[in-house]
Amino acid sequence: MILHKGEVLFRQGDGCEFLYQVKSGLFKVTRLHENGNMVLFNILYPGETVPHHSLITPKEAHGTAVAMMKSEVETISAAEWYRQLREEPGKALEIAILLQEKVRFMQTRLDHLTVGTPGERMELLTRWFNDYAHGTSLTDLLTQEEIGQLIGVRRETINRLLRNSV
Asked: Which PANTHER family match (predicted)?
């Protein structure tokens, strides 16, 4: 399945009828809280099978995944996925490896959040995105608010960093 920038892969609250393996592209995952706050809490990249929290047992989608660029995903029947998990001994190791990779990604993200200055955090995020963005600018993929959420600063700080980098 091909999704273009802005198209939704899954929505917060959707049932777990399918899992998806990201073949190419990037997705941002946001969560709308009861108080109306929208928070960007994850980036999906090639090689991931998602939703992560449904790899072993089904659970409704925790957030909404939106394509950040032209992206390709393989749709996987959740019923077939869980059948394989029950019947094929190697499936559990496959899932453990997927989750381990996501934990390592999250450790890197936490490292990026604890680096000194906002400028240094911005540089690390930009470098990470450059590995997946195929020449697309970070600001073409994310809003200043979203960039700020990823590096732990306010939108105004992002605006200032962008102004000063030109």
From this structure: CRP FAMILY TRANSCRIPTIONAL REGULATORY PROTEIN, HTH-TYPE TRANSCRIPTIONAL REGULATOR ARCR
d(CA 31, CA 64) in angstroms, rounded, equals 6
Identify the three-state secondary structure at position 120: helix
pLDDT digits (tens, 9 = 90+) for 122-139: 999 999 888 888 888 899
Domain 1-88: CATH class, spelled out: mainly beta
Identify the CA nearest to 49 among candidates 22, 81, 11.
Answer: 22
**pLDDT, tens digit (0-9, with 9 covering 90-100), for 49-84:** 999 999 999 999 999 999 999 999 999 999 999 999
Mean pLDDT score, 133-146: 90
Question: Which position has the token pair 């400028």?
Answer: 119
Q: Cα-flanking dihedrals φ and ψ of residue 62, to 5°?
A: -80, -20
Mean pLDDT along residues 141-160: 92
Task: Report the side by side order of strands in the sheet with 38-44.
Answer: 8-10, 64-67, 27-32, 38-44
Place of tokens 């394509």: 67
Buried-state track 28-55, b at ≥16 Cβ within 10 A, e below 16 = bbbeeeeeeeeebebbbbeebbbbbebb
